[in-house]
Design goal:
homodimer; about 260 residues; alpha/beta; seven-stranded mixed sheet; three-stranded antiparallel sheet; 10 strands; about 40% helix; DNA-binding
DNA sequence: CGCGATTTGTGCACGTCTTCACAAGCGCCT
DNA sequence: AGGCGCTTGTGAAGACGTGCACAAATCGCG
């Protein structure tokens, strides 16, 4: 605070811990803050209060302050946070000061979309290679990149320094691809295939399953439906839904 | 437990609470169990132990047992769980006994992929309508469905009973689309746009942001790099990375 | 120069989630 | 029929995450 250290190279002086170990929950929210901060910066804001930022990020303001406090004190009491400074700080912590190369394996339906998704490029990532196991797809050009065969991974890894791999293959192929990625030194994997991957210790895997999200929503739908079906009944009785459900959606009426 | 009630119509007798309120964390894992169970069923297993199922789902076995215990006792001590029965139970709880209609708004890059994603169909959902605000996209046929204009939502909602909407539009359009969805009675939204949606109480929103997942991985990469960069140094000293940092990501250390 | 308005940073209490460890229950084998 | 091995279901403890409420710090203004 007293004097702005350049956050890109924090602790030049030597006293600041390079990477405080943040709670996972905090890490998961930082990208959200970052996005909100970029929005603010684009609309000309120079500072923002925890209240303002938390609203933009959709979280509780106390939570936001605690999260930010884990990275150190980059706010000014009575004023708020310096938007630009905070952006730099968060980007540094998230390791986004350098543009990371990502290998995308599986150029099917989803892979295609990911290859063309500009949200990656705009947020610090660069798709360095597209790979697929299907020879008939090899050679295809997507968004300026030529699809190569997955067995070329070692070559690709030699050209680029890959640390992150994205798996967008069918579930049946995912484990093998993961093994190949790990073999060439990839230590972080984003898995879109609906299956569990087993990887050696030290390799991080995050999974995104689109259908799972829908199923979670479905549960809440089911729940809401069963509640609104017995508005007055209520209480502890909560006996199985009677026929009164009918009008809403007869057929889904659990029982049938 | 004593006697198997048919799970599709639980509580016909009247004593069983229709929907026990499950911890959110449990709900989020049920779809994973379900997927693992389907795999087991397909490979001919009739029963499975908590140990086996938890391994297939990638979780701790005690956690799995506690999760399942929340739905009631559907296991047999000394034997395990009846695969088919458990599938029915979980599908019932998740509200998947009926095929839910989903409206997908935004047929751009990502929307296209989602429209063609067979993981939805295979897990209890049916894309009932594709919508987009861009008139030039209206009329296009994707995967057997014709893209309609987003303003037709009321008509669509009248034809189908929509409860779930998926937003795959640019961030700028997302809030407006959400409002439109809510207006026609949608109470659950899966949002792929990188922004926070504000919706009335009673409407559930889940957000999936592909870039955020990468950023989280990036953090862990950064972290691993900074740790392996000072292998011997260690201890509490952890003083800020000296100039050597530049060299660090030189080649992702670790890798090679 | 001092005061009040404002906003951060955090101690504390609470709730949720995880994990261990073990008693209760079930089936099989003798 | 009885005992033994296996597996579930759960109590209790601990780790983790959340949110309130307030002291500490800063700025602007008179």
């Amino acid at each position: 605070m007293s004097q702005h250290r350049h956050p890109g190279a924090p602790g030049r002086a030597g006293a600041v811990p390079a990477l405080p170990d943040l709670p996972e929950a905090t890490v998961a929210r930082l990208p959200e803050y970052l996005r909100a901060l970029h929005n603010l910066a684009d609309t000309g804001h120079e500072t923002v209060s925890s209240e303002g930022l938390s609203a933009a990020a959709g979280v509780n303001s106390a939570k936001l302050r605690k999260d930010l406090s884990h990275l150190g004190s980059y706010g000014t009491r009575g004023v708020g946070y310096d938007v630009a400074l905070l952006i730099e700080q968060i980007e540094y912590v998230l390791g986004l000061t350098q543009r990371r190369a990502v290998a995308l394996v599986g150029v099917g339906n989803l892979g295609h979309a990911l290859a063309g998704y500009d949200g990656f490029a705009s947020r610090g990532f660069r798709i360095a290679a597209l790979l697929d196991a299907d020879p008939s797809r090899v050679g295809e050009e997507i968004n300026g990149l030529v699809v190569r065969h997955v067995d070329d991974l070692p070559t690709v890894a030699a050209e680029e320094s890959l640390a992150i791999g994205v798996i967008a293959t069918p579930a049946a192929a995912a484990q093998q691809v993961a093994d190949q990625l790990v073999a060439v030194g990839v230590t972080s994997i984003l898995n879109f295939a609906p299956c569990v991957l087993s990887v050696p210790e030290g390799v991080d895997v995050r999974k995104v399953d689109l259908a799972i999200e829908l199923q979670i929503l479905s549960f809440h739908e089911h729940r809401k439906a069963s509640l609104t079906a017995l508005p007055a009944t209520g209480g502890t009785a909560l006996t199985a839904l009677p026929g009164g459900f009918a009008a809403t959606d007869t057929q889904e009426a659990i029982g049938t």
